Each structure stands twice: as structure tokens, then as C-alpha cells.
Amino acid sequence: MTSDKVDEVIEKARAEGRKKLLEHEAYDVLRVYDLPVPKAGLAKEANDAVRLAEEIGYPVVLKIVSPDIVHKSDVGGVKVGLKTAEEVKEGFNSILGSVKEKAPDARVVGVLVQEMVPEGLEVIVGSTRDPTFGPVLMFGLGGIFVEVLKDVSFRIAPVTKYDAETMLTEIKAAKILDGYRGTPPRDKKALVDIIVKLSKFMEDHELVTDVDLNPIMSFEEGKGAKIADARVLIKI
Ligand code: ADP
Ligand code: MG
Question: For the chain, which domains are there?
Fold first, then answer.
């Protein structure tokens, strides 16, 4: 896909009156910028889900795909670590059942079958387009670090490699990235690379208002990082 393809995906969503790219669309546009997205495919039926899981390789993750659902786990829309065809079939039906009960009005496009990303340190990279300053990039550690402690750092785009390196050092919990109590230091280069590429993506595509990569699994030094969830919002 080229950068034109990114615009095509965005225009299709706008034509359908959607302010949010579906998760697989989000991966398609981020992949154009060489961001580390997981393997994934959209299933409409349980049998499709099993076929995709076999292509991707077990274990897999299943997720509800709906333009109306922002927090998928809140409505029972995420199942991780499914290891067999049987578990995938069950997971598929259980997700649809739970979403029907907890978000009865949500339109359901299908279920995303996704590569299970190995455990890592969960970090977040995000961007919001400020009306005055343009794209602002954010970095933080996942979970309570962001949600409770608001321990994040910011930069206005364009974010250079040097800026991104500094962002990693500016959070209060920066030491965790260097390893603690026997946990290894993280691959900071891979995180810097994600921030710089997301900055470029935001600069190139003015219709994108927000991107939230939450979580990104950050692996030990030399082993990279991988995005496990992506939300891309657009202007309509
Ligand atoms: P949401 O943020 O909409 O509730 P996520 O896609 O972030 O849903 O999934 C919820 C949690 O499940 C993530 O924070 C992560 O811990 C885990 N998770 C999601 N996708 C994967 C994946 N592909 N591999 C491993 N863990 C995952
Ligand atoms: Mg998430």
C-alpha cells in the first residue's frame, strides 16, 4: 500500500460517515508507515475465524470489530490466548453474545482474528491534532502509569529521533525502561522509531485527528516492539 492507499481507506470511512477506522483498517494504514502491526484478518463467521487462526498460527486473539465500540474489553469484546480451533469457535460466539447483551445497539462488522503478541512491557504512544499546534505526540507506560498517574511526555510534531529519545527519559517511571529487579532493559530504539513514524503519519494525513496505540508490547533490547491495539480517529 502507498500513501494514496491511506487516503483511500480514510475516504471510504468518511463516505460511510465513520469517525473511526476499524481496527484492521488502522493496521493497514499504519503498515504503510512501516509501524510494527500484528498479523490480523477479519472474520464474519466462526469458520472464517478458524481458517484465519490457522493461517496466522496459534495462539490468537479475537476482538469485536464495530464502528460504535471504543473500549472493546468493557463489553466482553476481547479474548486472548486461544490455542485451538475449538477455543476460537467458542470465543467467536461468546464475543458476539456478550456484545449483543452489553451493547445491543452497536453495529457489528465482524471479529478480528489477531496474532497473540508475546508478553512485554506495555507502553502507549498516541497523537492528537491540536487546532493551534498541530499534531502532538504522547508517550507513556501502559495501565496505571497513564490512567492513574498521568505519567506521560509530549512533543509537537515534527518529532525527531532526538526528541523521541528525550520523551522516553522525561516520564517519571523512565527507569523501568532500563530494567529493574531482574527484568531486562527495553528496546528503546524500537519505541523511538514508532514515535518518529507516527509523527510523520500525522503530518502527512491532516484528516486524522487522533491515534492511540495502546498497548504496544515493548520487548527486551534488540527484540523490538509490537502494537497490540490501534485506534485511529478521523474528521468527517
Ligand atoms: P480495548 O483497549 O478496546 O479494550 P485491546 O485491543 O487493547 O482492547 O485489548 C485489551 C487488552 O488485551 C490489551 O490491553 C492487551 O493487554 C490485551 N491484548 C489485546 N490484543 C492483544 C494481542 N494481539 N496480543 C496480546 N495481548 C493483547
Ligand atoms: Mg486498547
Answer: 39-116 (3.30.1490.20), 121-234 (3.30.470.20)
